[in-house]
Each structure stands twice: as C-alpha cells, then as structure tokens.
Amino acid sequence: MSGLRVLLTGFEPFGGEPVNPSQSLVTALARRAPPDRRLRLLAAVLPVDRRRMPEALARAVREHRPDVVLGVGQATGRARVDLESVARNRIDFRGERDNGGHVALDEPLAEGGPERLVSRLPLRALAGELRAQGLPVRLSRDAGSHLCNALLFELLRRYPRVPSAFVHVPLLPAQAARRGKGEPALPEAVSRTCLLALVRRLPDLVPSRRAPGRAPRRAGT
After folding, report:
1. Domains in the chain: ranges and CATH
2. Does residue 148 have an active-site annotation?
3. How far is CA 94 from CA 77, 102, 190, in A?
4. Which of 10, 11, 134, 201 lies 20 to 30 A from 56 at CA?
C-alpha cells in the first residue's frame, strides 16, 4: 500500500492511571480509514520506561519505515493540544519513577550531545492554521523533562532525515475528575480532531521520498 507513511506513537498508562489518552488516540487513528488517500497511518505504543523506550522506538521505525513520525503523549496541567517544536538534552523525573522503577535527576539524555534539537516541520504555521479552524492548538517550545521530551530528542537525534514532532494532549475529563485536583482536561474527540487536522496537512508538506516497498534513508538505529 503506497502513500505517506506516518508513524503515530503513544505511551502506555503511567502514574497509577488506568488509561493514557495518547495510547487510545494513536491506536484508534491507525485502525480507521486515513483522512486523505495519500496517507497511511501506523501506530506504536511505547513503554514509559527510560531504558526500554529507545529500543521500542527503534523497532517501530524499523518495522514501519515511516516518512514522518508524530509522537503523542499525555500532558497533565495543559488545557490545549501543544505542538512541541524543541527537545532538550535533559531528563528529570523530579522525584518520580517511571514504570520500570527508574529515576532521572536532571541528567543529559546524550553525553556530549547538542543542548537542544528543533523539529524541521513548520509547526508554527501549522498551529496557526489549526487555530484558524477553531481548534485548541498552540505551538510549544517546552516538551517538559520526562519521556515525552526524551522521545522527541531521540527522534530528532537518531532519525534526522525523517521529519518528526511531538504532540501533547491534555488529560481526559474522566481522568481529571478521578484525580480530583481541578486540572484542565479535553474530550478525546477534540484531541482526535486536532491530531487529524495536523496529519491531514502532512502530504502537502512532506512528499513521500521513496518508491513503494523501499525504506527511506535514515541515520542511526
């Protein structure tokens, strides 16, 4: 099957939550018909584990051979869908542990690596387009210090020839109600509409760079 291959990655639940909106979003979108016949949507759910996540991502890239990768993750405390344009070479769990029991104390993700990496997708323009459609989307330059930032840094460092970005989605209303802290939330249908609107623009921005059946050139594994 031809078309621009878009790999959507989500994360498993963490922090005691029974669900993660990023997981349900990417798996649902990959199962349904794509919003444009020039697209092929693929999904991978990654572990919330700083040791296992990079290899799980590498396996997904090898298996799906994407032309574009969009990571998706849950963002507690955010009220809108954020398009993350910058990844920092730091990881800090701020006293928490990931699902593998690992800690992170303001450490570099890659010793001697660049301080930050920037997505080459036109995210500022895309955020403006989506807001003009009445969607709650904004550009962000702060992907946090947890695995969402680590995933974006991994993508931009190891696969520089594959355009990549990260999308933060808010808590689901049921999650926010269960937590009882008055945190902002967004219905899954709204986050899905925002993500679909973003994905729909990709064929005009990133033409497929290979004949059917051939993998795109990429750096690192």
Report:
1. 4-204 (3.40.630.20)
2. yes
3. 16, 12, 30
4. 201
